[in-house]
Model the fold of this input.
Amino acid sequence: MLPKKFSYTHQISSRLTAAYLAKEGIEIVRNIRDANWLQNEGWSDGLSGVGAEDWEADYTTRTFKGSGGVGEDCSQTPYYNCEDFDPNNYLRIDGGFYNYTLGTPTKFKRKITITPEGIDKLIVSVEITWTEKGTDYGPVTVQEILYDWNPF
Done:
């Protein structure tokens, strides 16, 4: 049996990783908003459908898997994928980078929820959960509000 001190250190390390993965989720959504602006597309293309939605995304594929809403047009942006969000999909690690397609599966799951609020505001919430030695941990949640910052 491992000493308690080692166990606590491992839990703290996992919680810190979860916090970084949550913040990365926010950055992925922010990057898509900014890329839309640079490509002269609608600021929220691929980010807002009808109501709150759950997504999977990583910085390598920049692919969203949405929970699916009525009236979504999946052809409008390279970032959106019409497949269903899978709450049991684990992040993988490849060369120190987390993604959904390459590498070794990890214990971490990430859910990105995007809730439109008006025409110029998105509430983005990222939740990280994990299981370690039969115990569920989390969620570690980060939330941010993104705006249509382009005045033109």
Notes: The radius of gyration is 17 Å. The chain has a mean pLDDT of 79. Strands lie at 53-56, 64-66, 80-81, 92-94, 97-99, 104-105, 108-116, 121-132, 135-147. The helical segments are 4-38.
